[in-house]
Structure to design on (227 residues):
């Protein structure tokens, strides 16, 4: 999860988020190099009186500064398209969870089980226990098995919401009358926090998301206790 004064992303927990972090670093390096070059040229033009008479009307220079940006854009676009297609891929999910957004809480339904559904409300600050996080803890966590492909169906009962968990690289809009889907897979166990990322009314800030990723045997025990 995020911590105070954090400048970068949260630690990646899924393969998709790892790819997104690599792409971010790749693009940031290109932007840094371009900015450094432009700043160097501007400072050079301001500090020296020497000019090359052929530079202002040279076909070779114009060719270079036309082709070079096109190559840079291709170097950015190709990895971006690859990750977009990877995010849309769904390969034989082991479990399906239906997520419904409400004003202002989330409800979850494990569609592979007959009667496994619950609502998830934020715990008020006055009821928090020592060590729990303000505005992030919920009364019912979403327990899921780790290292398994899980399909999440996202929709809404009233207004626009957005189901987002940054450390897993997830952000899917919850739209009334429409069913969106995304996939997640965690490479390690733990608690992963998210929040609604679409302004949905006065209590938009008070509908957090908590995923608890556990080994399969613990998930089976939890699901049996909930039925």
């Amino acid at each position: 999860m995020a911590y105070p004064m954090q400048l970068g992303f949260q630690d990646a927990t899924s393969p998709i988020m790892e790819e997104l972090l690599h792409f971010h670093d790749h693009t940031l390096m290109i932007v840094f190099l371009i900015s450094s070059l432009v700043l160097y040229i501007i400072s050079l033009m301001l500090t020296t009186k020497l000019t090359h008479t052929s530079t202002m009307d040279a076909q070779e220079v114009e060719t270079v500064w036309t082709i070079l940006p096109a190559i840079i854009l291709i170097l950015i676009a190709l990895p971006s398209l690859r990750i977009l297609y990877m995010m849309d891929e769904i390969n034989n999910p082991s479990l399906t969870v239906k997520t419904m957004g409400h004003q202002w809480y989330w409800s979850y339904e494990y569609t592979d089980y007959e009667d496994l559904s619950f609502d998830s409300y934020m715990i008020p600050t006055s009821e928090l226990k020592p060590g729990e996080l303000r505005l992030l803890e919920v009364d019912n966590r979403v327990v899921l098995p780790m290292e398994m492909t899980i399909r999440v169906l996202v929709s809404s009962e009233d207004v626009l919401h957005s189901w987002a968990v940054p450390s897993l690289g997830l952000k899917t809009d919850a739209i009334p009358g429409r069913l969106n889907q995304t996939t997640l897979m965690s490479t390690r166990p733990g608690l992963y926090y998210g929040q609604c990322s679409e302004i949905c009314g006065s209590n938009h800030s008070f509908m957090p998301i908590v995923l608890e990723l556990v080994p399969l045997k613990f998930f089976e025990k939890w699901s049996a206790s909930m039925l």
